[in-house]
Amino acid sequence: MTDTETGSVFYEHRDRYIGLLEPLFLPSSPISNDIVCYFSSLLRVLGMEDKGWDPYAESRNILNDLNRLMKVRLPKQRFPDGEKTMWRIGLLLYSHIVEMDAPYEVLTNLLRFRLGKGYSPNPYFDLLTDKEKSAFRKSGIRTGRKIEIIKSLSIESGLKIGDLYDEFYNSRLRNAVQHSDFILAEDGFRSRSDLSGTRAFKLTFEELDNFVTKAKAFIAAYLQIEMTTRQVWGLHKGTAVPYDLQYKGLMEVLVDDRDLLCGFAIHWPNDSQSTYRRTERGVEMVNCMVDLQNANLSMMVGTLARRPGMFGPCVEDGHKPVYTPLDGSNIRPTWPADDRA
C-alpha cells in the first residue's frame, strides 16, 4: 500500500469528515428533543450488561491491531510478497470498518434525535417498510440499507453525513472481501462477483488505496469526534441541572476515570434516582428502561407523595425536597431557588 496515511491526504480527509460530523455530535441545542435521547444515542443504551459484552470495545481493539500491523516492517524471509500482505491486512481493516454496527447505530440515532424521532436500540426498524420489517426478524438489515437510511435522515436534517459513505463505501468491494471472492493480481484487485463471472470487476491499486484510506479517515474521524464529545460533556461533572419540570428531576453527567461522559443520573426530590452508566466494567442501569413504543427511556421516579405539596408530585405537602447525593460525594443538589414552586 502507498504511505498516504503518513502524508497530508489521510489527515485532510479525516479533518473534513470531523467537520461534517461535528454538528451531529455536538448540536447547538442538545436539550431541544430531550437530552436523554441524545445521551442514549451517544452511549448506545440497550440494557444491563456485565463486563465483556460490548462488541464495540473489541472492534476498537481490532482496528488498532490491524492499523499497527500495517505499519510493521515485515521480514522478507517470512513474507516474500510483503506488499500484497499489507494490501490483505488493509482489506481486512476496510471490511471491519464498513461492517461495524456501532457507528451506524450511533449516527442513525443522532440523526433521529436531531429530527425529534426519539431513541431506539434498533434505530432502523420503525423506518423500514412492512416487508422489510418482516425480513428483519429473520435476517436483520444489510449494510447498504443502513446507509440508505442514514442518507435519507441526513437529507431530512439538512446535513451531509450520508454523503460521506459515497466516498469510501463500495458494495461490490465489500461483498468481494466479505465472501473471499477476490484475488490480488499484478495490476490490482479482481473479483468474479459470481460463479459465472458475468459480473466480474477490477480495481487498480490506486483505486483500492483510495477506498481504504478514506475508510480509515472516516473511522478515525468518528472515533475522534466521539471522544471529543464525551470530553466536552465530561466538563459538566459534579453538577446537576433541572431536567424534568413536572417531577423536579435534576440531571447529572456521569464520567469515567478519564473524565469522559459515560452516563447520566436523574436525581428525584423523593431521595431516589434513575441511573445509566456504561464503563469497561459493564453497564449499570437503575430505575430506567428502554421504552420502544415511545422511542425513549422510561424513568421510574420512585414513590409519589400521598398529599403532594406545591413543589411537585414527589414531595409531601409541608416537606422539603431531598435529592440523592451527586456521584462520588456527599453533596445533595438542590432545585434552583428561582424555580421553586
Report on the structure:
The chain starts with 7 loop residues before the first helix and ends in a 42-residue tail after the last strand. It has helices at residues 8-25, 35-43, 55-69, 82-99, 101-114, 130-139, 143-157, 163-168, 171-178, 205-234; strands spanning 49-50, 183-185, 188-191, 201-203, 240-244, 249-255, 261-268, 272-279, 282-286, 288-291, 296-299. α1 crosses α10 and α4 (82-99) crosses α10. The protein is α+β, with helices and mostly antiparallel strands and 341 residues long.
List keywords for this structure.
single chain; alpha+beta; three-stranded antiparallel beta sheet; 10 helices
Task: Please describe the topology of this protein.
Blueprint: H1 8-25, H2 35-43, E1 49-50, H3 55-69, H4 82-99, H5 101-114, H6 130-139, H7 143-157, H8 163-168, H9 171-178, E2 183-185, E3 188-191, E4 201-203, H10 205-234, E5 240-244, E6 249-255, E7 261-268, E8 272-279, E9 282-286, E10 288-291, E11 296-299
Antiparallel strand pairs: 1-9, 2-3, 3-4, 5-6, 6-7, 7-8, 8-9, 10-11
Helix pairs in contact: 1-10, 2-5, 3-4, 4-10, 5-7
